[in-house]
Structure formats: C-alpha cells, structure tokens
Amino acid sequence: MEKYLNAAEAIASRAMGADPLPKKPIEVTADLKTKTLRRLDFSTVEASHRVDFDGEYTIRLGFPGERSANAKPVKMGFYMDGQLLNTIDVETKPSGLVYFNPFSDAEMRLFLPEGDHVFRAAFLNDEFIKTITDPKEAYNDKKNKYIGSITFVGPFPSKVEKASRKRILICDPKTGSACVQKIVANLAHHAYRRPVSSAEVTALMKFVAMAKAQGQSTEQGIQLALEAMLVSPEFLFRIERDPNPTDPERVHRVSDVELASRLSYFLWSSTPDDELLTLAESGKLKDQTILDAQVKRMMTDKKAGAFADNFAGQWLEIRNLDSVKPDPGKFPAWNPDLKDAMRTETSMFFQHVLAENRPISDFINAKYTFLNEQLANYYGIKDVKGPDFRKVDLTTEERGGVLTHASVLTVSSYPSRTSPTIRGKYVLNNILGTPPPPPPPDVPALDDAKVGSEVSLRKQLEAHRNNPVCASCHSKMDVLGFGLENYDAIGKWRTMDGKFPIEVGGTMPNGKSFKTGAEMRQVLMDSMPQVSRCLTEKIMTYALGRGMQPYDNRALDQINRALTTDDYKFQTLIYEVVRSLPFQSRRGEAVTTKNAPPAKPKEIASK
Amino acid sequence: MITKKKLSRRTLLRGMGSAAIALPFLDAMSPAMAATTKMPVRMAFFYVPNGMILDGWNPNYEGKLQELPRALKALEPFRDDMIHLGNLTHNTGRALLDGAGDHGRCCGSYLTGIQVKKSMVEIKNGISFDQIVANRIGKQTRFPSLELGMEDARQAGDCDSGYSCAYTNNLAWRNETQPLPPILDPRALFERLFGTGLPMTPEERVRQSKYRRSILDFVTQDTHKLESTLGPTDRRKLDEYLSSIREVERQIARAENDNAQIDPKMDKPYGIPADFAEHFKMMSNMMAIALQADQTRIVTFLMTREGSSRPYRELGIPDGHHPLTHHRNQAELMEKVRMINAYHVQQFASFIEKLKSTKEGDGNMLDNSMIVYGAGLSDGNAHTHEDLPTIIVGKGGDNYIKTGRRMLVRRETPMCNLFLTMMDRMGVHDVENFGDSTGKLEGLDLS
To answer: Residue A317, CB half-sphere, CA atoms under 13 Å: how many?
Structure first.
C-alpha cells in the first residue's frame, strides 16, 4: 500500500506537472573512474542513470584526448533506452587550449522523462577508429579522442506543455468550479472504467478544496484528487459484481462495462479507451458484430504491443532475459545491446503474427524474422544495415520460428553452457503443453568442466539416461533439446561444441525421427493440434488471470476446433477466446472454500 | 522518544560528524532517562542458500571457541561475540512424502516451521516467527520489519521441482499466503528509509501526512462500500488491502510523532551494483542505520535466493553456485564452494564490525542484538536438513547469550525451539508452540 501511495503520488505529479521543480538543479556525472560509465567498444559508452523529474537537462559530454592536427570531426549520437535523441559534431583535432591532459567537452539540452534509463553515447561512422585495434592506443590521450564522461545537470522547467496535462485539462480550470468538476468526473470515469455517480465526484472534489485550503493551486488540487483515484480499490482492482456472490451454481454474463475492462486488460494491459467505454456504457458491446469489430481494432492498435511484451514475455519466458547472466569469459559477444536486440526480434515477430493474422504455426517455423544490422551480423545474415529492425526473409534452414530466436535459446541455457534438458523441458512446457514431472531428489549435475573438453555433452547425458528412472523423462526432454544444439548458450549458430562436432539428430518417443534442427521443426509442425491446444490454454490463462480447470475443457475444445478449421490463424484464436463462455461470464463462489487461490498481485495499470 | 523535546536531532546531527546518525538513544540526549531507558533488542537473520561444505563450517570441538574454521575466518575478531550452534534441525524441510524440491521447502519453511504446499499457484505456508514479533512490538518503530535481499524477487513461476518462486525468494511471511518480498535495489531501500532524497521541510512533511491520511480515509470508505457485493475470495483481497491501509496509517502516525528525517550521510544510490560486495555494503550499511536509529528492530536478509545459481566472478568462479554444490565430492568443485561460503561470511563480518563499533550504553550495539547467520540446508550436495549451519552473533541484551563458544544441542532439536527463545527475548513471552517446536531452546544463557 505504501508503494501504491508513493507510485500514485509520483504518477499524479508527473501527469499534471503542477508541482514546482526543485529550486537547485542537481549534477550527476557518470565516468570511468567511478565505474558508472561502461565501455561497450572504442567508440561507445553507456551509463544507467535515474532521472528524478520530467524536465529539461543539460547533458555535458567529456572527451579526453586528441587526434592528429588534420583529423576530421566525427558525429556523435546520444541515445536513451536505445532511441537516438540527438546528434552533434565533435572536433577531434587538438583544441589549442592548454590542458595538462588534452580534453574538450560539448553540451546539449534535452527533455528527459522521469525514470530509470540507459544512456549511450557513440561516435558514428568513425573511420579513424577502425585503424586502431590496441586498447592501449585507443585510450591514449595523445593518439585518440574518446568519450570519457556524461554529466547530467537539471532539472530545468520545460516550455513545452505536457501531453498528459493537456489530456487531463479538458477545459480551463481558471473558469471556475464547474470546469474543475468536469475534469475530475472525466478522470474518475477513465480510472474506474465505468460511469461515476455525482456523489463520487463530490467526494473527490473535497481533495481539490483541501489542497486550496493548504494554499496550493487548483491544479495541485486536481492532482491530489487524481492521486486518491489511483489508490482507490475501484482503480486498483478490477471489480466484477455478482448478483449472488456466494452461489457458485449461478453463472451469469459479466456486464458490458466489465467486459470492456476484461478486453482492454487482455489486449492492451491498460484501461479501456473512450470508444470502447462508450460502446459498453450504451450497452452495445454485447452485440457480436460490434464486439468482433472492437477486437479487430484493438489487435491492430499500437497498444497491442503490450500484449506482445506481456504475454510473449511470459509464454516464451523472454522476461528472464533481464536476469540471465551469461559467462562473459565464454560469451564475450553478450552485452546489453545484443540482449535488447534479441528481445525486440521476438516481440516484433509476435506482433507481426498477430497483426497480419498469420497462422500460429509461424511460431514453430517461419521463413522470416525481424532483424537489425547487429542481430543480422550475429546470425550471419548479410545486407541488413542500420539500427532499425525490419522484416527479413530467411534463405537458409539455420533459423526459422521462435525456437531459433536467440532470446529463447538464451533464456533456456545455463550461464556457461547449453542444456538440452532445459531446452527440451522448455519445448514440452511452452510449445507442446506436456510438462515433464519434476526430477527425483539428489540428482547430481553434469560436470561442467568436462563438457566439450573431455567428453561431449551428448555422451554425458546419454550416460545419465542409462538409469531407467532418469530415462523415462529425459528420453522425451533431451531429444528435443539436442535438436537445438546447433545454437550455443546465447543462441549463436555453431557446428562444434569445444572439440566435439554437434550431433543434432534423434528419435521422438512417438517414433518420428529427425537429422537436423530444421527437420525437428517439421516434426513439431506435424503436432500442430497439440501446439495449438497448448497456446490456447496459455492465452486463456493470460486473458482470465487464472489457471485452467477441468470445467474449462469444453470451452478450450471449442476454441481449438474453430482455430483448426480456420488454418490456425492467430486472430481467430483471439476472437474465439473473447467469444468464449469463460471470458464473458462469471459466477459466485461458495463461502466454504478455504483454499481459495491466492490473490494475484495487481499491477498499477500503465497509463 | 522523549529525547526530541530536549534537543533537535538535526542540530545534533550537524555537530556530530559522520559517526552519529539520528539517535533516539544517545546517552547525552537523555540523561534523565539513562537509568530507566532500556536499549531495545534487535534481531536479524542472514540466510545463505545451497548449504555449506561442512568441514569449513563446523569446529570439531565443543565449548570455548578457538581458532575458527575456514568459512568463518572473517569473524575471528568477533569470536567472543558469537555462539556456534550444532544439531538444530528443520524437519519440515525434508521431503516427508512430497518428493523432490528440498531447496523450495527448506527456504519456505525456514522461519515458518511449516511444511509448505508443493504448488506453483496455490501458495500455502504459515506466518513466519519474525512477523509474530513484528505484529507485537512493531508498533514501537517506524517499520515493523524490513525484508532485504540481493538477488531475485520473482514471486511466481517454478523455482524448484514444482515449488513456487515465492518459497525460494522470501524469508518473511505475513500470513499463509502472503510473503513479504525482499527489497533488492539500494535506491528503493534508500527511498523507503530516508524519503526520495530530496529534503522536505517540516511543513511539507506535515502536509504530505495530512493528504495521505485523507486519501486513506477516502479509500477505506470506498472499500467498505464494495465489500458487501463481493464473493469470499474478492473479499479476502479487499481485507488484505484494508490491512495494508491500516499499516500505512500507523506508519504515518509514527512519522508524525517523530517529525525528523534521518540524515543518511550518503548520496542516494543509483541502480544495483554488479559487484556483490559493493551491493552488500550498500544494503547492509542502510540496514545498520535503520537498526541504530531504531527505525526497525527486525530484519531478514536473503543473501541470495535459495537454489541460487549466481556465478561468483568476483572470486574467479564462473560456475553457478547451485550446480557447484552438487559436487559429488570432487575436490575442485568443493573448493569453489568453500570459497563462496567464506566470501559470504566475509561480507557479513563487515556488517558485524559496524554494529560492534557503534557504542550503545556501556557497551555496543552488538550486545543488544541477535544476528543469526545460517543456511536452510546443511550439506548442499546431499540436501540434508539436520545440523543446519547456524551462528548467532551478539548477546541479545542484558548479556543474555553467553557467547564465545560452540554449543551442541541434542540431535534433531527443532530449529523452532530457537525461534521460541528468540521470541521471548524480543518481548513475546506468551507463545508456547511454534511450527514443530518441542519447547524453548535452553542453554544459550549458560556459560
């Protein structure tokens, strides 16, 4: 609750921007000495920095060193969270000023939003640095100029009015209390996602009066009222009312307004917008045609990106990218940039399958993916230039489908090596929907030091499987994992593991065999009914926020039938989930249930 | 807190230099009270995962502590301030027909003494004993308890053979279903203890409290209106919500009584340091300040999550901790685990040093503390739950614990017996049973 209060204070203050900024700007420097600045390569540095307020900041970059007298200026790009904010030219020849050590700096003034950000500064298309290979030379003050520090000074008030403030102030509060009331009512309508009563508005208006009594402005008063709404149970919980709250026998349809919230949290992870809310409040949303049209609109809206990030993040475990720590000794290629690129590939791929209504079999095998130059190089694919991601056709069998995405391959590995067992379990869990039982206790791990040097991983695991108790599950898991052995623990293509050639082939428990990763994907394609059932369950679980129960089987079968007859089109799956009985109805709950499922922590809906 | 009437704390702080931080119990501030003011007893748990290599932990003798075993070397200067306990057992960590998942079980039951439900969705544990104490004495401090950690605060998903991550990633449990997740980020801890780091004037603080109070009143009314229309599960959610509102109300009241911001004497940290020692230092420094300023008396600290596979590149160890502990008696792997065990204790020792060097009354803060350092498994390779590695540093107030010795209790003595004794020391005298306890642990006070 304390965290919610803090968050509500911060969000309301950011949205309105009515609070004055601190009087004195703060200066924070990220540099190499304090290890707050990281070197990504000779031209690029990166710093994590927390911006405490929305506002303008002066950003000062320090450049130690100098190049020769005839050196050309270079372009420097300044990025926040991977997005280019600004470019400037940096002179690299001697400045003519007398420093003990050569040094120059440059400033820019930028608007920065509150939050934790990663800032990156890089010399772009720097021909000179390509001639240097030795770090001693690259960071020699007499030979090279490089980026040595980033200083943030601020905040300073910004002249640009905030978009969120504009959206809140639907009329000018200076015109009197009628307008203020209108503003508060409108905010409550959106926050509570339903019509609000005049009594509720009156209760909220007390906060405006209270702020004024404390000598604060009307806008600060609206901000306080907004804060109250954001911690109210009406906002934090999605409340659905039952006519008979304690009778589990009486199933009933949720109201249109409740359905609108279910829909918008499912596809947008956020509150319903005006269009959806208006339709619901006028009772039109229960109309199948109108409902379908809304689903169509929402799936193709930009906000469906939240569905890709949240659902795919959970289903494919992409969220774990942030907690994996590949061994830098073994995988020097691993860095935050590559990690972000991996995440983007999978997210864009997912959004494409959804927006273009591709069959869900694309997840298993597809002749395309989404790459930028960095990731394309990593995959050994030529002719993709620049930092922007785009759809790229795949011409070889090396990659295709999410199981060959570096993101998925990384989250299903150990820090120092691949694990066919973990990858196999991953496929069984997330693709085929047949999780293996947990292992018996006291199972020894493999000897990492030996893998790839004394004996191949395959041989080690085979020895393990000689034990019949282990074999019962490992025969299912390992074979699928071996099918992915052509990718190392951070998803790079390989044909050797240490000094042993990779052997990919295997025979599945159902007798089907394969010799390459591509053939394994084909075998999985043959199991589409199982794959689609698995994805259906995962999506239903996500949409309803509860685990599937035996009584949901009928709905799941029904959705799955419709999906199969429509060639596994992804959008059909979404339509069918929304049309299903569990999505549109609820029932009471008997009071005697003692072991009710635990409360699911609710996150504050993103604005 | 009689002291603040006599002397403004902030004025005092200015004059004290860096050693003194906001201190309700400084002798100079309360001469009149010196005879009657009793120092509070503090209790903390530092939990390390994956068991230990026991030859580096257990001395092969009883009685007076002589040279400490290898893992404990860093605590050598505090040999006379600690008691080394042998044979304490958590039976509830064992399989008892629940199959694999010793890591999930041992951490889940560590402070609750309850065999946790093997599930990823239906979380079921019990209240942890630190929270029983917090419920009882927590009202006297700004925070009833603090939960800290260093690694992973995921609360869902499978962390060990079908046991939810809620079991491996938390020590403190408010009730059967609600764990108290640890704070990992030094900045988040800083803001919790010291505010956003932007100094507020007393007037601003008064105003903020006033606003917060009215908002909480407002949402309490809203919640009551809602309750009548809902089914049991939803009602329980709202009840949890209401109780958290009351908790914040109490905090506001306490902060109002004590309208002073502690001056942390440090810059606000940014982000989580990659270096383990650096991260630990930040977290434990703030923890020491919170204990010293009597902001809380109860802390649980999860060094890394149970089953952690964190590599220790700081020590030149690229392999994960957990895979290493399944060493099958290979000397090389065991050696790496010994290094990790010693490294953890080394960090812990720097925290102990801080408490020991803080004067309090006639002695130091450590005299009024019970800082337990221990693991939920003994042998990590074989997943054993008896003779759990456990030491208590500090005398627990009034020279209660006779430190400086190794004390072996009867084999299979429940760990919960120790908890009963600690509850008693913390001022909760009427709890007779906890978890699988068979009575208080006797003998801590006998030399």
So the answer is: 23
- Pick from A511, A526, A541: which residue ends a domain? A526
Residues B212 and B309 in one domain: no
Q: Which domain-ending residue is among A498, A526, A554?
A: A526
Q: What is the pLDDT of residues B317-360, one digit of tens each?
A: 988 899 899 898 899 999 999 999 999 999 999 999 999 998 88
Q: Are B307 and B369 in the same domain?
A: yes
Q: Which residue has the tokens 């075993």?
A: B69
Q: Which residue out of B96, B97, B270, B315 would a mutagenesis test of the A interface target, given it has the greatest number of A Cβ atoms within 10 Å?
A: B270
Q: Is B16 helix (H, G, I), strand (E, B) or coil?
A: helix
- pLDDT tens digits, one per residue of A432-441: 998 887 766 5
- Average pLDDT for A3-15: 82
Cα A463 from chain centre: 39
Decide if B439 is inside a domain.
no
**Residues in chain A within 8 Å Cβ distance of B138:** none
Between chains, do A22 and B198 touch, taking CB under 8 Å as contact?
yes
Task: List the single residue in A206, A207, A589 with the smallest CB-CB distance to B231.
Answer: A589
Say if residue A152 is in the same domain as residue A175: no
Using the predicted structure, report yes or no on whether residue B258 has a pLDDT greater than 70: no
Between chains, do B330 and A447 touch, taking CB under 8 Å as contact? yes
The CA-based dihedral angle spanning residues A33, A36, A38, A43, taken in that order and rounded to the nearest 10 degrees = -70
Chain A from 26 to 55: CB within 8 A of any B CB = 28, 36, 48-50, 52
Same domain, A14 and A30: no
Q: Report how far residue A562's alpha carbon sits from residue A572's, in angstroms, rounded to the nearest whole number.
A: 8
Range with top average pLDDT, A13-17, A256-260, B42-46:
B42-46
Rounded to a whole number of angstroms, the distance from the CA of A468 to the nearest CA of chain B is 17
Alpha helices, DSSP H only, in A17-83? none
What are the pLDDT digits (tens) for B301-326? 999 999 998 889 889 998 889 989 98
Highest mean pLDDT among A463-472, B252-261, B269-278, B295-304: B295-304
Cα separation of B172 and B188, whole Å? 18
Selected residues 319-338 of chain A with any CB under 8 Å from a CB in chain B: 323, 325, 327-330
Interior angle at CA A511, CA A505 and CA A517, nearest 5: 25
The nearest alpha carbon in chain A to B189 belongs to: A3
Q: Is residue B164 part of a domain?
A: yes
Give the separation between CA A586 and CA A588, rounded to whole angstroms.
7
My answer on whether B304 and B166 are in the same domain is: yes
B112 and B79 in a single domain? The answer is yes
Mark yes or no for CB contact B248/A214 under 8 Å.
no
**Interface contact A588, partner B, CB < 8 A:** yes
Query: Which residue out of B187, B222, B328 would a mutagenesis test of the A interface target, given it has the greatest number of A Cβ atoms within 10 Å?
Result: B222
Domain that holds residue A522: 413-526
Q: Which of A227, A233, A591 sits opposite B238 (nearest CB)?
A: A233
- Residue A448, pLDDT > 80, answer no
A545 touches B at CB < 8 Å: no
A589: contact with B, CB 8 A cutoff: yes
CB contact under 8 A, A441 and B95: yes
pTM over 0.80: no
**Cα distances (Å, whole numbers) of residue B191 to A197, A526, A538, B415:** 37, 54, 37, 35
Whether B230 sits inside 8 A of A242 (CB atoms) is yes
Q: What is the Cα–Cα distance from B337 to B69, expressed in whole angstroms?
A: 14
Answer yes or no: is pLDDT of B18 > 60.
no
Print the domain residue range for B301.
38-194+267-425
CB contact A202 to B (< 8 Å): no
Average pLDDT over residues A168-180: 91
Let me know whether A150 and A171 are in one domain. Answer: no
Of B102, B123, B244, the CB nearest to A598: B123
**How many separate domains does chain A show?**
3
- The number of helix segments (H) and strand segments (E) in chain B equals 11, 14
